[in-house]
Amino acid sequence: MDVSVADLHFARDGQTVLQIPALTFPSGTTTAVFGPNGSGKTTLLRLIAGLERPSRGEVRLGDVPVGQDKAARRSIGMAFQTAVFLRGSVRHNLDLALRLREVSAPDRRSRIEEAARECGVAHLLNRPARRLSGGEAQRVNLARALALRAPVTLLDEPLAGIDRSARTQLLADLPRLLATFAATTVLVTHDREEAFRLADRLVVMIAGEVKAVGAKSSVFARPPDRETAELLGYTVLPANGSLVAIPPSSLRPGEGSLTFVLAVERVIDMGNHIHVIGTIDGERVDVRLRIEEASPQAGSSLRVHAASYVRLP
């Protein structure tokens, strides 16, 4: 099921929070809405879910406007950023979500068992839901949404607030889980690694506006402006009267077609490589050297070149 928005505007206390002329999340894809905190990502998700009403415009699930059809909203499964559980066991909480969608008892049992097994929480089904650790709660939260097998699945910062080990494991598991249980998925994140590892497509949002949308490779290859480039991990530097965006790890020691002078401030030995941190024309820069390369001294200068770059408009 496609999700589309048209002339979408949302304001709170007289201030514009979101303004999107047009945007489509194609059926069968996983799209990451990626941007900094406060960019309007979660507001967009809530508008899609029908939890907020737009000031203007509409959201459609397929051909049906969300605000005009309660059945359309039942096509959505959503995992909120903070897992909220009722009293009772994990099984009870998963079962309740399915009962509210009028799923039959036999189907509820089989869906709960499958989702719990695949999400790695089968051993928690009889545990009180309010006594889970952060990582356990996020997995149960995800299992509850995925068990619905909804045409549209919405995930709000699915890896937020969990420890590093749990995050690493869930980051590895999520693509498989979404392929198994979800059809069209929209997830929001402020983490670049999560966006690129979990999604097929990217929507880059800054200050309530969509800056770029499309396949990951095309969005990364053509940042439209400085803010988007920096959000995607580029280093932006002035060169020959304009700005160039240099991809991660593309600043290297030595001369090239585009050469800069780096004022070295710190040199950090990471064991298998070296980070040289300093400034170029006042911009903070981090250059990675191989361990066998000559290491500069703090206070010295290092000539570096851009192995690749994108010239910004």
Structure description:
This protein has helices at 41-49, 70-73, 90-100, 105-118, 134-146, 164-181, 192-198, 216-221, 226-231, and strands at 3-12, 15-25, 30-34, 56-61, 64-65, 76-79, 152-156, 184-189, 201-206, 209-215, 235-239, 242-246, 251-253, 259-269, 273-280, 283-290, 301-306, 310-311. The protein is α+β, with helices and mostly antiparallel strands. A six-stranded mixed sheet has the order 6-7-8-3-9-10, with helices on both faces. The two termini are 36 Å apart.
Query: Within the largest sheet, what's the order of strands?
Result: 6-7-8-3-9-10
Structural class: alpha+beta
Overall body shape: globular
> Level of helix content?
25-40%
Strand content: 35-45%
Q: Could you give the count of β-strands?
A: 18
Distance between the termini: 36 Å
What would you report as the Rg, rounded to the nearest angstrom? 23 Å
Low-confidence stretches: none
H/E series = EEEHEEHEHHHEHEHEEHHEEEEEEEE
Whole-number mean pLDDT: 93
Largest sheet: 6 strands, mixed
Please work out how many helical segments DSSP would assign.
9
